[in-house]
Write a structure and sequence with these properties.
With 392 residues, the protein is an alpha/beta fold. The protein is built from 13 helices and twelve strands. The strands form two sheets. Strands 2-8-7-6-5-3-4 form a seven-stranded mixed beta sheet, sandwiched between helices. A five-stranded mixed beta sheet has the order 1-11-12-10-9. β9 and β10 form a beta hairpin. One of its GO terms (molecular function) is transaminase activity.
């Protein structure tokens, strides 16, 4: 018996880039003290008010099927939030509720790409981006960005790879770099998307974690609402990573196609989870700010802790729960630096190479432990870098 090649094609060849995370997890399972700064998981749990709403909904009987694009009241609440934050008129018909942002990414590509098409995405990238494109049978093509320009996508680089492409996936605020795309960058991206008739898929799950600049959804730019699909989620904004509740925003025809896809895959999201999502949104912007505030503070802490290092350069971070650090002055690759750091200091960070080649020679640090633990880990990390033999 032989399995279909679909999953092998989706995962690709070679490493998935998460070896350091796996090693750190295994060390902790053996009782070794490890400071794990690899994954974007809050160091707080979901607010009890949200959990109470979830439990009350389940006990009230909302445990049956919920086929379709989502409960009407939740879709209305999401549409109102998107309208207020992005400045683009959005109705419930533009909203599909999904089992997390990852499912929205998958659905967006499934309804816009055919086998043999090309899907573009920017390097560095979140680990699942290439596989999400390849799952459709399409070819994934990375568009490199450069540390020298703050990892901002450049129109010329996108246009050079746009022949035969149907989609372009972007992410701002960005994981892994923390880069917030400027208005000019997004206007350039929009122009290339229009010139080459691309669907623009905009991953905006970090839109509440903004430390510098402004968050501009490309859907708000002239002529872009009809060709832009926006991925959103409560995972980062409301510390609900395990609840798996997100959404896709787009033209009503796209939402109809995604609804048909969901009928044949997820068959809807549990009603009590949707009710918890509605309760989360009802807590308002002040609650979202409180969830994001520690990461703003820790970004500033990282800047202060690494400012005097001769061998580490912090990539300016305008958002998200990470900072990217250039370690090339140590003479080590990001992979080797992370390996040696884990061996010597029991501190786990993600190599930049885990997110593509544009961030080679960098490491990503998740700001996901309390301030004192983070400050101590950063001091040890800096001392480790300074103590390495000269690169020459």
């Amino acid at each position: 018996m032989q399995l279909a090649g679909r999953v092998a094609h989706m995962t690709g060849d070679g490493s998935d880039g998460w070896e350091i995370y796996y090693r750190a997890r295994d060390l902790k399972a053996r009782g070794v003290a490890v400071v794990n700064l690899t994954i974007g998981e809050h160091d707080i749990r979901t607010d009890p008010r949200i959990l109470d709403a979830m439990a009350a909904s389940a006990r009230a009987g909302n445990t049956g099927y919920t086929v379709g694009p989502g409960k009407p009241d939740l879709r209305r609440a999401i549409a109102e939030r998107v309208t207020a934050r992005a400045g683009v008129a959005t109705g419930p018909g533009n909203v599909m509720v999904t089992p997390g942002g990852q499912a929205a990414l998958f659905a967006a590509h499934m309804v816009t790409l055919d086998p043999g098409d090309t899907g573009l995405y920017c390097d560095p990238y979140y680990a699942t981006y290439p596989g999400t494109i390849r799952a459709t049978g399409a070819r994934d093509v990375a568009v490199p960005t450069r540390p020298e320009t703050g990892f901002q996508p450049e129109a010329e680089a996108i246009a050079a790879r746009a022949a035969g492409a149907r989609t372009l996936l972007i992410n701002t605020p960005n994981n892994p770099t923390g880069t917030v795309y400027t208005r000019r960058t997004l206007e350039d991206v929009a122009r290339v998307a229009a010139d080459h008739d691309l669907w623009l898929i905009s991953d905006e799950v970090y839109d509440t974690q903004l430390w510098a600049g402004e968050h501009l959804s490309p859907r708000a730019l002239p002529g872009m609402a009809e060709r832009t699909l926006v991925v959103g989620s409560l995972s980062k904004s409301h510390a609900m990573t395990g609840s798996r509740i997100g959404w896709l925003i787009g033209p009503e025809a796209v939402i109809g196609a995604v609804t048909a896809l969901a009928t044949n895959t997820t068959y809807g999201l549990p009603g009590y989870i949707q009710d918890a999502g509605l309760a989360a949104l009802s807590l308002g912007a002040a609650f979202e700010e409180a969830v994001s505030a520690p990461f703003r503070r820790r970004r500033d802490l990282a800047v202060a802790c690494l400012a005097s290092s001769n061998r580490l350069r912090l990539v300016p971070s305008g958002g998200a729960m990470y900072v990217m650090v250039d370690v090339r002055a140590t003479g080590l690759s990001g992979n080797r630096f992370a390996e040696r750091l884990l061996e010597a200091e029991r501190i786990a960070v993600m190599p930049g190479e885990s997110f593509g080649q544009a961030a080679a020679g960098h490491v990503r640090i998740a700001l996901t432990v309390d301030d004192d633990a983070l400050a101590e880990a950063l001091a040890r990390l800096a001392a480790f870098a300074e103590g390495l033999p000269d690169a020459g």
